[in-house]
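Minutes, project check-in
Item: structure for the 216-residue chain
Input as provided by the requester:
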Amino acid sequence: MSKSRRHQDTLKGQLLQYIWLAIPLGVVGLVAVFALMQGRNMQQSQEEPAGLVDEFVVDTPGATLPPLPEGITLPGTAIPDLGQEHVPADQQVEYNSNPPTSGPHHEEWARWGIYNEAPSDEQLVHNLEHGGIIISYNPALVEAEDLEQIRQQAEELSAINPRIIVTPRSEMPKAIALTAWGYLQELEAYDAAVVDEFYNAHIARGPECQDGQCPN
């Protein structure tokens, strides 16, 4: 066999090796790309829930807080604790206050921020468990200019700790309700000082928080 023929056979063998190697690598690459795309789609659906108009990003456990002094009276009305059980995502829970302040809840909590459509109670209770503060307002009882101030105040408070949600709630008797885990404060009208006081007393004090550091 001539040198030229042997050289051609060698090149063909090397080429076949590269082809057989490239096929599985290509398949693996396509699978990886598909998985990445699926992951991005899932992440996007979680990041853009219905009604969220302004998200407050929570990416740290938060600052350490000193324990509350014994015997201190916190703002709001203390509501009996209904526990922290997780229930299936399609299960609705009957709570002991409106809005709720504790009890069984879904594993997925609502994203922090300002909503024009309310997340489910079962999600919001999970936010309270994570040390959050929820400002609920009755659209029929709150003036547009007051709602704008509520949203602006929430933006300012989110710079301290972004675990805060503003959400409409038409099925409540008062104009505004402030909730933390185990506490409810109802307002006939918007009062910025009362909101500040409630927030400062209760933020990052949920049952899953440790000295002010909470789950994201």
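Outcome recorded: The longest helix spans residues 3-47.
No further action items on this chain.
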